[in-house]
């Protein structure tokens, strides 16, 4: 178990060394890069500038670490690398927080005394599918809400940051936020060791005159290019206040945005229900849907029997009637769907009508396969979302299917609401969408899987909806009409447009427009219904609506602009092949459906629109090409964040890598493409080249960047960030992994110090790197360095860490093991080649530890200024030989364990000590034929072997294999299993290396590892080898067979050195044992004989009485004679005597040997 106290000491030591190294880098100004006239390769990487209303956290750190790792690697490759870092202050959150603090001091004094009993915020009934179906062009929450949702008062939020009352008071001034948080973020990032050129850092808004001018220039260019237009846009609006209700104006509902629906008009057919029978105008139940593509599957319409609905006039001439909730009617009146803006004209006496009055009404549903459907009861409808009218698609909505099934099964329920059988029983779900794994009636399938019996099983229905919507909302495949075969995500807008066009004649008058202008208005506004995502209450106590208000907007819907953006996307690299297809598909879909984006607002911080200064440019719109500003920021601002220092009026553009979150695909990153092609339409070389997508989460509590550093050290945290993953899915920062990383790094530093000391003492083997272990270690270092470089290049940092640290460290451990587990047996040149290359290839991820190791090695230069290690071509045959050794040793260990299994009849009672290894030089002729046949099939089938039936057919048609028919298929099955594990090498008919030679060269390692006294090698083609062995042993997979134990005579091995701590050992001696075998037995029997000890054996010159004589403590070996390494023991079991032979002479041993271990 790890001692927490000792771990904290290790972190403290790492932090101390990191601070020293960071100071060294800063003094050397190693990360400052300037453009020059050299034609050298450059690398510019950027990270979305973080918002300055708090300190950076691990979510920021995870994504920016990808920039950091990439730039570290590219520096080693000799490129001029720039990683600049800005700070975003544009938008509402800072202003809103500052204003809140002012109000709280006005309302509750200074320091504020808040009410003890705070008003509880009601729990909102949030559907699990809201995140799936929401408008993807919007972010998740405003930064303000995301960071403050857990506290009621802003003052309390600031207190949670550890600020004093006097300090908090200063934050009521927006400028103080801009002065306070950016320097803290810089300090935290410096402690992380990021390779940032801080001269180029800046803050946004008009506080910085240079950046302000840059944004104004950008928008002047966009307007001149006719990319910016003025018109009505959907906005959260307070009717009571008569103006848009932005976040700062709300008492509840901060961060809530407009949610767009398609308004489906279901005309009530004659005879109309009694309550509206007197109305002669067309009457429509209006339903709001997020899924217009499902309208082909309508079987009925639902209303709630007890909810009150309003019957009101719609259209400019009020010549159609809508039925919806009063709340929905109020929203529609501000969206051009009634004659007067903000006025709902109700049909007299029908302001409130219970839903039961409309049950059983016959309806005409657009796009439905049924010419007539009916209004039926649904008891789960709520009046606080949508229109209160639900169009029913039971094939793809679990709620709709459950409600329809209830009505079909329960006649009393139908009778209760006056629903006749013909209104329900003939209607069956219509297949309209195919969903992978759920079929073409997905809702029916999910209800059956979850055993949903009633519309009242809320939890089960929620689970069913989540599963179905997750798979079908974007990736379902349409089955109907001209859209058959297309994905639902691709046809939503098309079907919405089709619904608009179907209602064109009766919609023209809504806007009082004619001709082309009317069609455009219809496509943008007609048949749309928009309401707040959740309830929004203004500070005046008014429930807000969504209204059409005048705004400046970027017209991303312009087709020519879209086409050019697609060209930029086509040349964009999104890295990570596994995720690239998904990312590119999402970007392409976003470019396709993106239309207008409001680029102005009236509240917050930022840059004023140059031609209409009453508006500010909103925060997403001033953040699209700012990466270009980094190239000149240091020349303009001279390193001052706010541009207060005037400089002369950079590194080359464009962005080589942009790291960002996948949640920004639907807004910021797509806007980045659009704006680059608009500002530089004829300079493709300035368009973004690469975007890296990533998001993160951690499995523990929220943690800031500085907390992460102080808990795990900078490099311990960075190691865990790299190990967290590179796929598009969210990654986990696991605290236990970070703790383990700290220990690994600390132990590596200690080991390097030990090796330097051992080298200085001459304790490492010197000379040629000629042993098998040397050759393998050198070769596999080269291989891993090359693999590591490839993964860095592909920004697969988890894989780079695997090849460049975890596997690399394992190579060292394996090398040491092959060298007998002794440091001194390792080659000095190879050990220090390993240390130097390990420091280099790890330095992009753990630069402080690597720099420290560079210092320990006595290097004059800095590792961050060094170059990637050079390598030679990898010897693949030697790699296979190394794999062979690993695999056979694992197999031999398993066989020893199996041989001693008590469940076996012939189990060994004690550990076997002798073995024969059977080696096959090549396959028998018939097996070669099978292998050649399989190899041919694999080549013809793109590396895939056919099924056994096909293979059996080929074997049966080969005449030379007929007499081996019974053996052939078992052999094929064995080969197929090997092929799954090893690939094409499993089909080779012979080994590319000498198996026996490798086993013999590693004899000592094998015997020590398996605690064997000896082994011999036999080839399977030798005459005395049993047929079962010759037929089953194949090249590359030798078989170890253990021999029964031989009878032995026990001798006493005595240590005669004074005060040594090693005592007498009884050691069994078998005829033919060598000195090396006896030494190996001694090590096995006495674990106090350390691997680093050299052990020698001595005999008594007087074999009978020598062990009884007194020992001279100064010279204890004067009565002994050392045995040569080639000496061999002979055991005479009859006389129970042991002798030793060396150099042609034989000597009796007696009952005692002497051993020296030192």
UniProtKB/TrEMBL annotation:
<keyword id="KW-0067">ATP-binding</keyword>
<dbReference type="InterPro" id="IPR055416">
    <property type="entry name" value="RBD_LARS1"/>
</dbReference>
<dbReference type="Pfam" id="PF00133">
    <property type="entry name" value="tRNA-synt_1"/>
</dbReference>
<protein>
    <recommendedName>
        <fullName>leucine--tRNA ligase</fullName>
        <ecNumber>6.1.1.4</ecNumber>
    </recommendedName>
</protein>
<feature type="domain" description="Aminoacyl-tRNA synthetase class Ia">
    <location>
        <begin position="21"/>
        <end position="101"/>
    </location>
</feature>
<dbReference type="InterPro" id="IPR013155">
    <property type="entry name" value="M/V/L/I-tRNA-synth_anticd-bd"/>
</dbReference>
<keyword id="KW-0547">Nucleotide-binding</keyword>
<dbReference type="InterPro" id="IPR001412">
    <property type="entry name" value="aa-tRNA-synth_I_CS"/>
</dbReference>
<dbReference type="InterPro" id="IPR009080">
    <property type="entry name" value="tRNAsynth_Ia_anticodon-bd"/>
</dbReference>
<dbReference type="GO" id="GO:0005524">
    <property type="term" value="F:ATP binding"/>
</dbReference>
<dbReference type="InterPro" id="IPR004493">
    <property type="entry name" value="Leu-tRNA-synth_Ia_arc/euk"/>
</dbReference>
<keyword id="KW-0436">Ligase</keyword>
<dbReference type="GO" id="GO:0002161">
    <property type="term" value="F:aminoacyl-tRNA deacylase activity"/>
</dbReference>
<dbReference type="InterPro" id="IPR014729">
    <property type="entry name" value="Rossmann-like_a/b/a_fold"/>
</dbReference>
<dbReference type="InterPro" id="IPR009008">
    <property type="entry name" value="Val/Leu/Ile-tRNA-synth_edit"/>
</dbReference>
<dbReference type="InterPro" id="IPR002300">
    <property type="entry name" value="aa-tRNA-synth_Ia"/>
</dbReference>
<dbReference type="GO" id="GO:0004823">
    <property type="term" value="F:leucine-tRNA ligase activity"/>
</dbReference>
<keyword id="KW-0030">Aminoacyl-tRNA synthetase</keyword>
<dbReference type="GO" id="GO:0006429">
    <property type="term" value="P:leucyl-tRNA aminoacylation"/>
</dbReference>
<comment type="similarity">
    <text>Belongs to the class-I aminoacyl-tRNA synthetase family.</text>
</comment>
<feature type="domain" description="Leucine--tRNA ligase ubiquitin-like">
    <location>
        <begin position="1046"/>
        <end position="1157"/>
    </location>
</feature>
<dbReference type="Pfam" id="PF22947">
    <property type="entry name" value="ULD_3"/>
</dbReference>
<keyword id="KW-0648">Protein biosynthesis</keyword>
<dbReference type="Pfam" id="PF24810">
    <property type="entry name" value="RBD_LARS1"/>
</dbReference>
<dbReference type="InterPro" id="IPR054509">
    <property type="entry name" value="LARS1_ULD"/>
</dbReference>
<feature type="domain" description="Leucine--tRNA ligase RagD-binding">
    <location>
        <begin position="919"/>
        <end position="991"/>
    </location>
</feature>
<dbReference type="Pfam" id="PF08264">
    <property type="entry name" value="Anticodon_1"/>
</dbReference>
<feature type="domain" description="Methionyl/Valyl/Leucyl/Isoleucyl-tRNA synthetase anticodon-binding">
    <location>
        <begin position="774"/>
        <end position="904"/>
    </location>
</feature>
């Amino acid at each position: 178990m790890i001692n927490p106290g000792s771990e904290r000491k290790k972190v403290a030591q790492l932090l101390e060394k990191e601070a020293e190294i960071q100071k060294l880098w800063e003094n050397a100004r190693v990360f400052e890069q300037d453009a020059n006239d050299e034609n050298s390769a450059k690398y510019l990487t950027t990270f979305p500038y973080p918002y300055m209303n708090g300190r950076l956290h691990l979510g920021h750190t995870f994504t920016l670490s990808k920039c950091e790792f990439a730039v570290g690697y590219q520096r080693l490759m000799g490129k001029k690398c720039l990683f600049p870092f800005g700070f975003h202050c544009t938008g509402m959150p800072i202003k809103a927080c500052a204003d809140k603090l002012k109000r709280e001091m006005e309302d509750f004094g200074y320091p504020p005394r808040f009410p003890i009993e705070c008003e509880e915020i009601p729990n909102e009934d949030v559907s699990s599918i809201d995140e799936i179906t929401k408008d993807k062009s919007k972010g998740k929450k405003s930064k303000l809400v995301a960071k403050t949702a857990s506290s009621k008062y802003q003052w309390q939020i600031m207190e949670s940051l550890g600020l004093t009352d006097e300090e908090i008071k200063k934050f009521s001034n927006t400028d103080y936020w801009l002065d306070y948080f950016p320097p803290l973020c810089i300090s935290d990032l410096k402690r992380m060791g990021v390779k940032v050129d801080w001269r180029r850092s800046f803050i946004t808004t008009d506080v910085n005159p240079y950046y302000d001018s840059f944004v104004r220039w950008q928008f002047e260019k966009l307007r001149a290019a006719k990319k910016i237009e003025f018109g009505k846009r959907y906005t959260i609006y307070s009717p009571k206040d008569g103006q848009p209700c932005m976040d700062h104006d709300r008492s509840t509902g901060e961060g809530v945005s407009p949610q767009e629906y398609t308004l489906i008009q279901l005309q009530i057919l004659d005879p109309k229900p009694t309550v509206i029978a007197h109305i002669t105008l067309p009457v429509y139940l209006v339903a709001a849907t997020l899924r217009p593509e499902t309208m082909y599957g309508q079987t009925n319409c639902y209303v709630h029997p007890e909810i009150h609905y309003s019957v009101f006039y719609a259209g400019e001439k009020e010549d159609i009637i809508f039925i919806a909730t009063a709340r929905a009617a109020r929203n529609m009146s501000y969206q051009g769907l009634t004659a007067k803006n903000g006025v709902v004209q109700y049909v007299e006496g029908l302001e409130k009508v219970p839903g039961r009055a409309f049950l059983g009404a016959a309806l005409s549903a657009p796009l439905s396969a049924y010419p007539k459907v009916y209004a039926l009861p649904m008891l789960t409808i709520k009046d606080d979302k949508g229109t209160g009218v639900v169009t029913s698609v039971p094939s793809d909505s679990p709620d709709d299917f459950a409600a329809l099934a209830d009505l079909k099964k329960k006649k009393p329920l139908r009778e209760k609401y006056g629903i006749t059988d013909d209104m329900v029983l003939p209607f069956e779900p219509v297949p309209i969408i195919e969903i992978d794994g759920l079929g073409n009636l997905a809702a029916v399938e999910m209800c059956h899987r979850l055993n949903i019996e009633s519309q009242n099983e809320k939890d089960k229905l929620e689970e069913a909806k989540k599963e179905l919507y997750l798979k079908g909302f974007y990736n379902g495949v349409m089955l109907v009409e001209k859209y058959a075969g297309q994905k639902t995500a691709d046809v939503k807008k098309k079907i919405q447009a089709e619904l608009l066009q179907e209602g064109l004649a009766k919609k023209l008058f809504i806007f009082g427009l004619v001709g082309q202008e009317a069609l455009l208005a219809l496509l943008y506004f007609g048949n749309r219904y928009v309401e707040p995502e959740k309830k929004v209450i203004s500070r005046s106590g008014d429930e807000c609506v969504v209204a059409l208000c005048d705004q400046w907007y970027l017209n991303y819907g312009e087709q020519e602009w879209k086409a050019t953006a697609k060209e930029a996307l086509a040349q964009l690299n999104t890295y990570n092949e596994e995720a690239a297809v998904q990312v590119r598909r999402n970007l392409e879909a976003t470019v396709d459906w993106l239309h207008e984006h409001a680029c102005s607002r009236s509240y917050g911080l930022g840059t004023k629109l140059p031609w209409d200064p009453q508006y500010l440019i909103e925060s997403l719109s001033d953040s699209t090409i700012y990466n270009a500003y980094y190239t000149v920021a240091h020349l303009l601002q001279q390193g001052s964040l706010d541009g207060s220092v005037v400089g002369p009026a950079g590194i080359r553009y464009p962005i080589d890598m942009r790291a960002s979150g996948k949640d920004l695909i639907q807004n910021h990153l797509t806007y980045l493409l659009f704006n680059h092609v608009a500002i530089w339409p004829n300079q493709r070389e300035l368009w973004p080249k690469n975007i890296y997508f990533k998001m993160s989460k951690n499995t523990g509590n929220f943690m800031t960047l500085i907390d992460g550093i102080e808990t795990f050290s900078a490099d311990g945290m960075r190691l865990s960030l790299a190990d967290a993953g590179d796929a598009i899915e969210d990654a986990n920062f696991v605290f236990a992994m970070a703790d383990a990383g700290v220990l690994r790094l600390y132990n590596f530093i200690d080991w390097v110090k030990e090796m330097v000391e051992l080298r200085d003492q001459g304790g490492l083997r010197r000379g040629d790197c000629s042993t098998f272990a040397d050759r393998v270690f050198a070769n596999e270092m080269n291989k891993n360095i090359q693999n590591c470089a490839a993964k860095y290049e592909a920004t697969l940092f988890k894989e780079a860490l695997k090849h460049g640290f975890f596997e690399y460290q394992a190579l060292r451990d394996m090398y040491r093991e092959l060298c007998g587990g002794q440091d001194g047996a390792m080659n000095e040149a190879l050990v220090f080649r390993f240390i130097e290359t390990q420091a280099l290839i790890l330095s992009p991820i753990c630069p402080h530890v690597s720099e420290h190791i560079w210092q320990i090695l006595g290097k004059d230069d800095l590792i961050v200024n060094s170059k990637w290690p050079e390598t030679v071509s990898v010897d693949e045959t030697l790699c296979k030989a190394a794999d062979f050794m690993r695999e056979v040793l694992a197999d031999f260990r398993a066989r020893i364990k199996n041989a001693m299994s008590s469940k076996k009849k012939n189990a060994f009672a004690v550990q076997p000590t002798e073995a024969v290894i059977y080696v096959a030089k090549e396959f028998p002729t018939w097996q070669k034929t099978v292998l050649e046949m399989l190899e041919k099939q694999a080549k013809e089938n793109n590396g895939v072997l056919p099924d056994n039936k096909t293979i059996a057919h080929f074997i049966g048609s080969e005449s030379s294999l007929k007499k081996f028919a019974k053996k052939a298929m078992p052999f094929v099955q064995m080969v197929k299993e090997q092929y799954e594990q090893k690939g094409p090498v499993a089909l080779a008919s012979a080994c590319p290396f000498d198996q026996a030679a490798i086993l013999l060269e590693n004899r000592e390692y094998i015997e020590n590892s398996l605690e064997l006294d000896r082994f011999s090698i036999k080839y399977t083609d030798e005459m005395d080898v049993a047929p079962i062995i010759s037929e089953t042993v194949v090249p590359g997979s030798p078989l170890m067979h253990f021999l029964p134990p031989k009878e032995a005579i026990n001798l006493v091995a005595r240590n005669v050195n004074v005060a040594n701590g090693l005592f007498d050992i009884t050691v069994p001696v078998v005829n033919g044992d060598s000195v090396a075998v006896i030494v190996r037995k001694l090590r096995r029997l006495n674990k106090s004989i350390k691997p680093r000890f050299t052990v020698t054996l001595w005999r008594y010159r007087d074999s009978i009485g020598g062990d009884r004589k007194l020992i001279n403590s100064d010279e204890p070996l004067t009565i002994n004679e050392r045995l040569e390494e080639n000496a061999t023991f002979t055991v005479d079991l009859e006389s129970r005597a042991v002798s030793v032979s060396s150099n042609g002479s034989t000597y009796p041993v007696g009952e005692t040997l002497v051993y020296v271990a030192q």
